[in-house]
Amino acid sequence: MKVEFIHAKLKLGKVEFDVSMLPERVGLVTTIQYLAEMDKVKSFLESKGKKAVIAGQILGCDQEAAMRVAEEVDAFLYVGTGRFHPLGVAFKTGKKVYVLHPESMMIDEFSANVEAHRKKKQGLLARFHSSNLIGVLMTTKKGQSTVQAEKKDMFGLEAKWPDKQFYYFVCETLNLSELENFNWVECWVNTMCPRLMEDINVLNIEDLD
């Protein structure tokens, strides 16, 4: 089935909000709907004495825009709704994230257990190094497979860890319950959406060292 994606841009009303809880240097992130409105938010923050950097658009599975400016800011301000996108920024950058709600112009400090996420990743990395039988999750889903193809490390796993056996599992849509049929796999490595790590114990390939 063919799918057509249409960008639905949204406009902010009057940009005015309480900046007292924000640090001096703020990185601005948002989804594509509000991307064109970030100059307004930046100008308002600067009028209140803050240094604002427009990081740009983030996706659920891609926070590289935030990573590019992470060293220049003390925290991030996400303009939008929901928890999914700011949670990804918090986990990826380790920085505090605040949320500016577009309709109410209210700011909340986003709550994310970054330390628990870091410890989980360390534990999975330790499991990988102590395991011999590794399952590698791959997908043929359009869009996901494009992201996956950019992860060149997936083609060099055997060369880098010749003492391990790698088994590649390819699917279009991952059914998590199906993984229970392969309980002999000692550690799973994920080349699909990196947010999968939040649902099950899989180590993202980019976290391998």
Structural notes for this entry:
The protein contains 6 helices and 9 strands; from the N terminus they run βαβαβαββαβααβββ. It is α/β, with parallel strands linked by helices and about 210 residues long. The mean pLDDT is about 90.
Give the SSE layout.
Blueprint: E1 25-30, H1 38-47, E2 51-57, H2 64-69, E3 75-79, H3 84-93, E4 96-100, E5 107-109, H4 114-130, E6 133-139, H5 144-149, H6 157-160, E7 165-171, E8 187-190, E9 203-204
Parallel strand pairs: 1-2, 1-3, 3-4, 6-7, 6-8, 8-9
Antiparallel strand pairs: 4-5
Brief digest:
With 209 residues, the protein is an alpha/beta fold. The chain is 25% helix and 22% strand.
The helix/strand series, from N terminus to C terminus, equals EHEHEHEEHEHHEEE
Helix fraction?
25-40%
Mean pLDDT: 89
Sequence of strands across the biggest β-sheet: 2-1-3-4-5
The helix tally amounts to 6
The fraction of residues assigned to DSSP E strands is: 15-25%
* Radius of gyration from CA coordinates: 20 Å
**Number of discrete domains:** 2
Shape: elongated
Which architecture of the largest domain would the CATH scheme give at its second level? 3-Layer(aba) Sandwich
